[in-house]
Amino acid sequence: MTTVNSKAMFDCDCQTIWQIVTSLTDYSWRSDISRIDIVSETEFIEHTPDGYATTFRVTASEEPKYWAFDLENDTIKGHWTGSFTAKNGRTEIDFTEIITAKKLVMKPFVKGYLKKQQAQYIADLQQAIAKK
User: Fold this and answer.
1) pLDDT band at 101 (very low <50, low <70, confident <90, very high)
2) Which residues are CB-contacts of 103 (< 8 A; sequence separation ≥ 6)?
3) Torsion of CA 77, 79, 82, 83, to 10 degrees
4) φ, ψ of residue 76 in degrees (nearest 5)
């Protein structure tokens, strides 16, 4: 099991970041996915530009403070949590992923992959907020 945590501060309110992060229909700001298929109110599938699919099942949602889901694809499975905290007119995000590699050969690469993916997500989110 691998745990990766990322925190960042943004110059906007929690509701704005919440709307961007949780939208399953407006994901054009994300460079890591090409489309999202909405299966139900609590399940969706993200597809990378290479066609790789990951299924997400929402386990908790408290707008605009907390969002959590389980995730799974062919190589990994785990849990993601996101906290959104107002601080002096700004918003701090705190995202944590706890992931298990399904294939032993993938285990050494999971942490580096997750760190890179979270850094790209935060960079994409910063650009999306700058456009608001």
Assistant:
1) very high
2) 75
3) -160
4) -140, 160
Residue 41 has a CB neighbour count (10 Å cut-off) of 9
Sheet strand arrangement including 66-72: 2-10, 90-101, 76-87, 66-72, 53-62, 43-47, 35-40
The helix, strand and coil proportions of the chain, stated in percent and rounded to the nearest 5, come to 25, 45, 25
Q: Which amino acid, 9?
A: M
pLDDT, tens digit, for every residue of 45-77? 999 999 999 999 999 999 999 999 999 999 999
In the chain, the domains with their CATH numbers are 2-21+57-130 (3.30.530.20)
* Whole-angstrom distance, CA of residue 3 vs CA of residue 10: 23
Instruction: Please state, in angstroms and rounded to a whole number, the distance separating the CA atoms of residues 13 and 7.
Output: 16
Q: How far is Cα 89 from Cα 68, in angstroms, rounded to an integer?
A: 24
Cβ(73)–Cβ(45) under 8 Å? no
Distance CA 60, CA 67 (A): 6
